[in-house]
Amino acid sequence: MNFNPKKSMDRTVHFYSAQQFDKALKEIQPLLKAFPNDGSVNHLYACILKSDNKHLTAIEYFNKSLFANSKNINAWNDLGCLYKDMKNYDEAINCFEKALEIKKNHPQAIMNLGNVYHKQQRYDLAIEYLNKGIEIQPNNSMAQFSLGNVYKSTNQIELAVLSYKKSIAVSAKNYKAHYNLALTLKGSGDLTSALKHCQQAIQLNPNYFVAVMLMGELHEYIGNIETAKSCYRKSLALSPSFTEAYWSLANLGSNNLTASDLKTMKALETSNLTDKSKIYLFFSLAKFLEEQNDFSNAFHYLKEGNELKRKYIYYQSEQTLSLFNELRCLFNNELFSKSFSVENDDISPIFIIGMPRSGTSLVEQILASHSSITGGGELETSLQLLFDELPKLTKVSWQKSISMLEPSIIRYLKNIYIEKHASLINTTQYFTDKLPFNFALVGFLMLIFPKAKFIHIYKHPLDSCLSCYKQLFTGGQEYSYQLDELALYYKEYVKMIKHWNSINSDNILNISYENLVEFPEKNISSILNFLNLPWQKECLQFQNSRRIVKTASSGQVRQGLYKNSITRWKNYEKDLLPLIDILSEDSICF
């Protein structure tokens, strides 16, 4: 049969477009042999190799194509995309810029450049180039989607939502835009809309297991625990190596993993998982084995998971210890001897503080069951006020700003807080602000809200630290993945609480988690008396509340009071010796 170059080229393109890469590679061989230096043939061959994950060989043939025709914009763009996939962002940028030298308004090169800048966290440039691309192609759904991703990364929620909605308006079948919109809406607290878009993503792509997983998370937050479990199971059925779903099941409560799950997870341990997947796997195995009272092997996996997670975290204990020391030095008795009285003193949040995993979510769930209190969840506004808004106002560092505090500045900061949380303030008489880290900012918050109440809940030090070490947090708590760093952090936490109690103990109620669980009615009554609120039996039946809970404890707080987390540290006493030794240096009470 005679060799027909055009037909062979057309067949190769057909197989390539159909993602039949083996057939495409076979079909193009005669063309490569007949035209070894042809730019188009080498370009097509490089694209096939790229799609078949033969990256290094693909680079060789892209370069052969560009040697034959250095003005081939698409070859420069495709090579740039390959470098982007390989995370060689500098080379990717170079390729896209070469394409733009040939044609300055090439939309794909412009938008790809924006996507690379996003990967490099050069957000301003990413937004600039993606908007340029959208100006050229306003109906490009993926460009709007990419722009939404940048806005999401920079926490510009309203702009992210707008971009995703524009992407969907152009292409209603863009299931990834529906999914990312659902993720963004989840973060902003609009769970109803998040559920709607998550459902649409699944309808468009029933095999999109991450969307099924997200559906489970949304149902978990709402309190539909059985539906959440079902979603996590379905995501595993769609992707058996999706270890994040195992962790979600494990973290939801006890006995959600089975012996069959253990067998599957153990098999996955020797498979080719990413480090991220291994982290979820190790924490899940640790949780299951602890439930089987196999504490030695449980701690083995716990240590493996924590050490692997720590590799990907930038954390320096010295910086955190320095911050805590600065806070204690700046917010001292001398500062509180000054008068900062401002209006709106009657607006006072209930700050629930303590170490993570120490019972803060439990206390909030109890209080939110009272008719006079709305649960606000983990609000990060206090951090923004001190570390962002205050320096922005004074034009100096937050440390130097403290000496400049006066009623007008405090009023300004308070109004930001009030405006941001107007819906909470106007709902009931009180609302909670349950960010555990606020234990470090008590002095600052006492200045902003002089009548605010602080409920500090604490666990046995070793149970508290172990609870943190066992938890795979979605973000923050970087100190918790190494025992010595965790111990140093806990020591500072104790110092902070002692300091604030010495400044103003009248506005702080210290509650023992163990006492709360042992004598709930007595302790809940004490908390309500502290808040000048009448007793309501609903506070004792808090597990029946249907409020949304968006923390790592969302499953546990719906189970009612239980004592099996008390003295759990004794099961790991030998393994915790490095932590015990450091805590003992400061005579931390055990």
Sheet of most strands: 5 strands, parallel
Alpha-carbon Rg, integer: 28 Å
The beta-strand count equals 5
Low-confidence stretches: none
Fold and architecture overview:
Helices cover 63% and strands 4% of the residues. With 590 residues, the chain is mostly helical. It has a domain at 317-584: Rossmann fold. The chain has a five-stranded parallel beta sheet, sandwiched between helices. Helix 3 runs antiparallel to helix 4, helix 6 (89-102) packs antiparallel against helix 7 and helix 15 packs parallel to helix 17. 44% of the residues are buried. The model has no long low-confidence stretch (mean pLDDT 91).
Notable traits:
590 residues; mainly alpha; Rossmann fold; five-stranded parallel β-sheet; 31 helices; 63% helix
What is this structure's SSE topology?
Blueprint: H1 5-17, H2 21-34, H3 39-51, H4 55-68, H5 73-85, H6 89-102, H7 107-119, H8 123-136, H9 141-153, H10 157-170, H11 175-188, H12 191-204, H13 209-222, H14 225-238, H15 243-252, H16 259-269, H17 275-291, H18 295-311, H19 317-330, H20 333-336, E1 350-353, H21 360-368, E2 373-374, H22 381-394, H23 398-401, H24 407-420, H25 422-425, E3 430-433, H26 442-448, E4 453-458, H27 461-469, H28 483-504, E5 508-512, H29 513-518, H30 520-530, H31 577-584
Parallel strand pairs: 1-3, 1-4, 2-3, 4-5
Helix pairs in contact: 1-2, 2-3, 3-4, 4-5, 5-6, 5-7, 6-7, 7-8, 8-9, 9-10, 9-11, 10-11, 11-12, 12-13, 13-14, 14-15, 15-17, 16-17, 17-18, 19-28, 22-24, 27-28, 28-31
